[in-house]
Amino acid sequence: MDRGTEDFAAFYERHRDPCFRAVLAGVGDRHLAEELTAEAFARAWGHWRKVAGHPAPAAWVVRTALNTHVSWWRRRRREVAWDAAAVGAGAGAGVQTSGHGPADDDATVVDLAIRTALRKLPKRQREVVVLRVFLDLDTRGTAAALGIAPGTVQAHLHRALKALRTELEETHEREEIKR
């Protein structure tokens, strides 16, 4: 193996699960997150010289995965559905396991309540949480990855954490009442 291949292999092994968890938190569907993460890593390999020089290569992978998801939705919006079954095929997809991604253990699966709460956040707040918390980027790295100011990252993170805390407390209270 050449040096670039070894570097990418080490990068992939080190960042595969954190990137997957970040994408899963962003999209909320396990199967989709696996596909998006795999696609993003494939693109990273194709542009490894550029990605290796990026200040936060793992953030590049997550950002690419999330951008791929947005691009898919834009294309989908322009398509004409031929029948109702085709339209409903993707609806209601829950958390699925394809058998090709990370194992189902506490280290790789994002709690359903947290995923649900994350999905309620505005897109930019969700992106900041994914990069800051799931990828453990600092404020400057997150700002660079998203193309925003560091102060904006801090403001979004503060608002997002407050909203998540409130939502998770309410969810916990609803669960306690059910019992």
TrEMBL record:
GO terms under biological process: DNA-templated transcription initiation
GO molecular function, one term: sigma factor activity
UniProt key word Nucleus: no
Domain RNA polymerase sigma-70 region: 11-78
Membrane-spanning residues: none
Keywords of this entry: DNA-binding, Sigma factor, Transcription, Transcription regulation
PANTHER family listed in its UniProt record: ECF RNA POLYMERASE SIGMA FACTOR SIGL, RNA POLYMERASE ECF-TYPE SIGMA FACTO
Listed name of the protein: RNA polymerase, sigma-24 subunit, ECF subfamily
Organism name: Catenulispora acidiphila (strain DSM 44928 / JCM 14897 / NBRC 102108 / NRRL B-24433 / ID139908)
